[in-house]
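Homework-ish question, so no full write-ups if that breaks the rules, but can someone show me the predicted structure for this set?
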Amino acid sequence: MTETPLLGIDIDQDAGRSLFEQVYLAVRGRILSGGIPAGTRLPASRKLAEELGVSRTTIVAAYDQLIAEGFVTSRPGSGVFVSDVQPVEPITPGQRGQTIRQDRAIRLEPTPKETAVRDPVVRPFQPGQLDARLFPFRHWARAVARAARSDPQSLVLSADPFGDRLLRTEICRYLGDWRGVRAVPEQILVTAGSGEALEICFLMMTQPGDRIGLEDPGYPQIRDFIGRIGLDILWLERDEHGALPPSEGRMPKLVFLTPSSQFPLGGAMPQARRGAFLAWSQRSGGLLLEDDYDSEFRYSGRPVPALAASDETGRTLYVGSFSKIFSKGLRLGFMVVPAAMIDAVRAFLRAYDGKVSAAPQRALGLFMAEGDFYRHIRRVRRHYGERRAALIDRVQTHLGGLVGFEDHSAGMHIVLRLPDDLPDMAISQEAARRGLTCPPLSGYCGSEDRLNGLLLGFCSFTIAEIEAAMPNLSAAIDAVVRQRGQAGAP
Amino acid sequence: MTETPLLGIDIDQDAGRSLFEQVYLAVRGRILSGGIPAGTRLPASRKLAEELGVSRTTIVAAYDQLIAEGFVTSRPGSGVFVSDVQPVEPITPGQRGQTIRQDRAIRLEPTPKETAVRDPVVRPFQPGQLDARLFPFRHWARAVARAARSDPQSLVLSADPFGDRLLRTEICRYLGDWRGVRAVPEQILVTAGSGEALEICFLMMTQPGDRIGLEDPGYPQIRDFIGRIGLDILWLERDEHGALPPSEGRMPKLVFLTPSSQFPLGGAMPQARRGAFLAWSQRSGGLLLEDDYDSEFRYSGRPVPALAASDETGRTLYVGSFSKIFSKGLRLGFMVVPAAMIDAVRAFLRAYDGKVSAAPQRALGLFMAEGDFYRHIRRVRRHYGERRAALIDRVQTHLGGLVGFEDHSAGMHIVLRLPDDLPDMAISQEAARRGLTCPPLSGYCGSEDRLNGLLLGFCSFTIAEIEAAMPNLSAAIDAVVRQRGQAGAP
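A: Not a homework solution, just the prediction itself:
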């Protein structure tokens, strides 16, 4: 086991770069260049600190960063070793006397290669995932730096529990221009994704035992959360125009709807049906919770206005998210609070531990104010539209006779409908064995009669990646067809 | 009503500043300098855009920013007017036909003066509030800019659902050095404040009807959340050494504890009592949830180690937060997941909509790695210690004979104990009338026998502010003493 003295690292006390960064970059460079072979032990932090004339903290921090990125590995008692680009081996927990097995460590931590991409691996055709590779990282970093320069406090504090005022002003402008929703900044509650907005609605407006109306099929996460907090679910009846308002029995406190693009089936709720839900809301006193999750992604025709846009009575809580159209990692979403409920929401927030960070809010406000946000949406929509067309084309080529689907020319995934003798669960499992993530439609169904199909996402995959994955999907379906044949099924 | 042409604004297409910023800063400067008197109507955005040769979006964005900051006011149909430094008047909601009354708008929106401070107004002696004025905004902005420069993706993406690896590594170092807790980065789950960590524990490990053991007195928020999600509360018995482990009846799934500094009474749990809880946990199969919320704030003596530090069996879920020691607005906290539960937590997160933003994580990791974080804690602790001493001194001067309190020389507030004939609720209300926020101790009590006292926070108030507020507190108490006298109470 050789040891390198790491002599000749150039430390400039007055450089623009911090000492930490200089040490980190120098060692990292040596490793990448092969200047320090794998298995080499790095000098003890104390020793290197003396050598370079910097504080030991600086060296430890640099080593920690290199450990974090998988370039080196720490072995307690023996030192820090240049990694041979294997998954990060965890430090053993010490005193607590529990060691984490290497194989778990492999499952837990991204390999350095994955770390380089940063985005958690997304397998074709995982739905609901934007393509993080299209994110304008440099532009965004500039917006953040600008927010930091012009108003450092805005990175850390929000003057208002409802969120940054500039962001809320911009959200109002966006809602007016894109969604036909008129709102004032006082009505906008910035939340940690749409998830927190929904949780606030459920926690604030219901108590255990209350009923919530849900579309069927719909989001499993919402069904789970509602169950965990002791609420009852009323599965809404549906006809060819989508979900129907509750007509009899104990009325729900809230009805959750996706009117612009039903999740997961796609398709917009007709105006008449929207009117029926608004009428139900006024009749029963129940509220409507509109999740407008990906309405920007229409690839032809005109945008479908939000339900809230046609609500004159303020009985619709509109929830939006930036996770699908911009970035999931920022965790930003919002709710449009009907004016009459603003005080109630403020009162609730006083006893509620809010989850949204101030850090990204001003930067996003600037990003929207300066138009970069809209340029980005137009750009990704163009890409998503091409990928969608490619996916549909390949589906028709490879699976034409077998499957059907409705074309809503919108959304982030398509839904393949399968014949009854090809259960979606089985195909989804075969697809998983072939490196694909195609959730079964039946998994989104709550009531008894389960729809049979597959969700295929297309947003986060290039056309080449889609083409490469299609044969695996065909193979998965063929495998199930064969099994059925052998089993002597009709 | 005069109108200014705003001629002579200098726009430099090639300046480092964006056009938006140039327009915004120019108009803002004119208003601040009195160059444009209050009530003046600004030119229509289209007109000004032509005048300056920039896009209309840029002007609208600049106006929005000025509206957001209260420098100008928009009146639909009539234009944008220079504000006379009154609270922002909201745009009327239009189509939806709801107008928000001006008085609500006043209550809702900070005045420009408050906006300048940015932190929501904190009234003396509101407890649990750090002093945002001490935050190292410039240093932090540099850390953010450095994260943006060296790794723009880290502002937007986290490679791991558990959070940024550098931050998790630094949290482990912090826990080892400061709290005696040995953990590896694989065990650290970064959350949106400690609140999300607790909610994840409750949602993941319980179902409606399960029992949760709570200290009495304790956090009202946690009591409320537990009630809202349909869990039962078991109030733990207490003796002079604090809460006692459950001894009989249906055992709780989780027991929530604040061993380093009991909330709100203060004081650390003795080692023997910690052992008793660990023994209970092993006996009953229940888990311990340790909230280590402000353990850095000890003003004399040595830090009290965490309960998790003495747990050899991995039955303690340790929850920490950066909201009290660093910044509430960043909304960052964490949980130390026992190694044996890591896979279970990862599985839960797949169906859970996480709330923590990637935006501040890498920057905080750098801030910790480079020592700025620890310098900041030492600095605020020095201030808080002085403020605490001043508060205690003034309490003894003004209220000496009347009230008592235990000195734990730790925490962010002191608890005044009141004689039974002076109910804390009444005094708290009188204090509120005099501009103070002193929550009644009885409000933190869950079971029948309610303690009588007041919480006085000292962290976010200068010694001068504390001195200025003391007479109001005395007056509040005197008022209640008089009322009692008149009521002929003993």
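Now go work out the reasoning yourself. Hint: The radius of gyration of chain B is 26 Å.
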